[in-house]
Hints:
The structure holds 2 protein chains of 2 kinds. In chain A, strands 1-2 form a two-stranded antiparallel ribbon. Chain A contains 11 helices and 2 strands. By secondary structure, chain A is mainly α. The two termini of chain A are 21 Å apart. In chain A, helix 3 (59-90) packs antiparallel against helix 6 and helix 3 runs parallel beside helix 7. The radius of gyration of chain B is 22 Å and the shape is globular. By secondary structure, chain B is of the alpha/beta class. The longest helix of chain B is centred in the middle third of the chain and has 16 residues, at 160-175. In chain B, strand 1 and strand 2 form a beta hairpin. In chain B, 35% of the residues lie in helices and 25% in strands. Classes of the chains: A mainly alpha, B alpha/beta. The A-B interface holds A 1, 7-8, 10-12, 14-15, 18-19, 21-23, 91-93, 95-103, 253-255 and B 6, 8, 39, 42, 45-49, 65-68, 70-71, 75, 77, 79, 81-83, 85-87, 90-91, 93-95, 97-100, 124, 140.
Amino acid sequence: xxxxxxxxxxxxxxxxxxxxxxxxxxxxxxxxxxxxxxxxxxxxxxxxxxxxxxxxxxxxxxxxxxxxxxxxxxxxxxxxxxxxxxxxxxxxxxxxxxxxxxxxxxxxxxxxxxxxxxxxxxxxxxxxxxxxxxxxxxxxxxxxxxxxxxxxxxxxxxxxxxxxxxxxxxxxxxxxxxxxxxxxxxxxxxxxxxxxxxxxxxxxxxxxxxxxxxxxxxxxxxxxxxxxxxxxxxxxxxxxxxxxxxxxxxxxxxx
Amino acid sequence: xxxxxxxxxxxxxxxxxxxxxxxxxxxxxxxxxxxxxxxxxxxxxxxxxxxxxxxxxxxxxxxxxxxxxxxxxxxxxxxxxxxxxxxxxxxxxxxxxxxxxxxxxxxxxxxxxxxxxxxxxxxxxxxxxxxxxxxxxxxxxxxxxxxxxxxxxxxxxxxxxxxxxxxxxxxxxxxxxxxxxxxxxxxxxxxxxxxxxxxxxxxxxxxxxxxxxxxxxxxxxxxxxxxxxxxxxxxxxxxxxxxxxxxxxxxxxxxxxxxxxxxxxxxxxxxxxxxxxxxxxxxxxxxxxxx
Lengths: 255, 291
């Protein structure tokens, strides 16, 4: 049987869909409400009191477009970390799947794709909410789901790789505090990166979320030539982390 | 499996295992906890890779062709790993897809019929009783009608009524020609279901044969159980062992195995004589208490 069989991948994804049908309301509720709260707090609150315009944009537009990246990382990296760990350690789900004609590479790929599609979808919600707050629709925004999908694939793989590495669920605290939160804060969501010290500006170029923030803003207000490079970085990020996730999960799942 | 070795660090879980399962039989892999039964099962699905030796399943070389081998086998795990929030029929449908079943709907109906859960098809699994969940696990493993089933401690932790119910299902499979490899540490389960029993201890097969043949070879015809205070039990044991009769603990009693060979005085008159069982063989050969 060949590698990466579509039937194996869609089979694993169908399991995720069957489970998702049991909790989609709660996930959708938080995905819609959270950007509204953030936009009210930062966009309207901060925007009407302290900050008026940033980089030539109304602050609510600046934050609204940036919030897409926040939604993507929180709906991909975290579910991938916790979901993978729980399915492996507590539910023994992967033992059942790997007893079927599915290998670890297919399993990881399917989990990534499912989380990526979900996060790509939910990542667009802040943009829709921002439109309700005054952001004008633009044709480039049609590419935002694609940008979100590719970034979410990378962060889903990141989460799976972390779950395949840690020995206890408590250790996720280190990852969220030392990796996820800094990536989220230094992405250019709430303030422009060019106001940071030069070292942090350089570091931000290594942050995939920053590239997503820039791509979403440019999709909304006009693309630039460097956006192709940014998109390539996101693809490379997803591919590299995919291979790392497969390697880590193989070590974890196959004795 | 030929000369298969599987180590976990310094622990050798499977130690030069030779095991062949002829088509169409139910082979019971009987052994105490820690004997290497579950590791053997994982080696056969490719979820564990042997350090040495050769494994072939239905003509497929493992681990290289593990995926193709898994497509032709069904697995019922020791631990319940159903998706508990998902409905009974969705649990079956997901695995029908994973096993590439062409007609998923028909496979689900077959699974519901086998597990006798048709009336509960739209219930979430966490609303089912323990016995229903076990029946569903079995049906899930059979969703693609495999010629080979691996049952890893299929009735562990179940009450006797549910266990008997599952035995009927497994017996039905065997009668239908499915080859079954069943690990268990329940003697009665092996005796009732297995055409042949392979006794496993310390990662090796230490005896194999039909239950009746194993009993005759290792335990003889008769066992005498003696119930008495500890001092008297010690004296009886000493006399029996002096005559070369194996003696094993049997809860509060001792069991003199092969008591038909005892000479005068070795078996007290108040001893309870009974036919020798697989449990006698198990305890004698593995040194472990039977369940």
